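Recall that a protein's primary structure is simply its ordered list of amino acids. Everything else, from secondary elements to tertiary packing, is in principle encoded there. The following example makes that idea concrete.
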Amino acid sequence: MSEALDHVARIQREWARERPELDMGPQGVIGRLHRLAGHLTEQLCVVYRRYGLGEGEFDVLAALRRAGEPFERAPGELAAFTMVTTGAMTKRIDRLERDGLVTRRRSRHDGRGRVVALTAAGRELIDQAFTEHMRNERRLVDALAPEEAAQLESLLTTWLARFEAPVRTET
């Protein structure tokens, strides 16, 4: 499919016809990123499902694994790392605990706090799933030439930083 005939270009043309006074340029970037994100998520979830995981459970296990020994974090930390509410995190942890992939216990440092830790089965599963996940990501990125991938990474890094940079207030 040529770029001029893709789904987003057709939508832009229709809007330009209906609302010629509006700039449709941003829709080309945002629309394509949105559609691409959907396609990428679909492709990534194929691997997660092979391991009996959803995207959220994979994220929790990955956050625990990359914490290093002893592979544990507080539930609030996990929620912050995976950008979900604490309620959504509780549901994910409940499922992972039921499946024997994580355990919960009281924090040794704060008796009121809780800690979530990978079990041996959880560590083995995430190590296997993450290895396949990285192969899958390589396959997806290899649709671009190395120079294109590097340029895209640079552009996305710059743009994302502008959204995630701390807001500075004048004092």
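The domain at 53-143 is CATH 1.10.10.10 (Arc Repressor Mutant, subunit A). DSSP finds seven helices and three strands in the chain.
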